[in-house]
Amino acid sequence: MLVTAPPPPTDGTPVDLEWYREQRDTGGRAVLFSWPWEPRQVAELARQVGDVTYADDEIDLLATYTDWLNNPLRDFCHRGRHLPDVEGIARKVNIFGAARRPQNLHTDVTALADEVLIFRVQGEGTLKRLVREGMLREEHVYAASTLPNFHYFLWRSTGEISRGILQSI
Hints:
The protein is α/β, with parallel strands linked by helices and 169 residues long. It contains six helices and nine strands; from the N terminus they run βαβαβαβββαβααββ. Helix content is 27%, strand content 22%.
C-alpha cells in the first residue's frame, strides 16, 4: 500500500516521525513528494524516516554536480538499501525521479539506477550520454528522438532495453 506522506514542516519545528513509523508498522510505504516544498528539505526528511520513496518530478534541479558530496540524494544512490534512519536502523530509501534536462543529472543518479524510462529525447548531448552510459544503443538513438507521446524505452541495470507505452493507472 502506497500512501502520500505529509510535507515537512516549514516553520522550523522538528518532524514528528510517529506518522511514518505507523505506516511502516502497518505495512504501508510512504512516498514523499518534493513539490511544492523545497526538494532538499524533503530529501533530508526521507533520509531521517527511512522506508520511504523520494519522488521528484524535476530531480535534475537537486541531483546536480554542485555540492554533490553534501546532497542527500548521493546517500540514496550509494546506500539506499542500507541507509540508517534517525534511530540508526538501516532502512530503504528509494528515488523515483523525472528529469527535464537529464544531462544535468549527476552520474551517480544514472549509473546506479535499477531502471530508467527514456521518453522522447531531443538534445544531442543527452542522446550521446545515454549511449555512453549504456542506456541506449546506437540503433535506438533515432527512435528515441522521435518517440510519440507516452512511448518510452525501458533500460534495466541488467542491460535489457525494451520499448513500451505508458498506460493510465
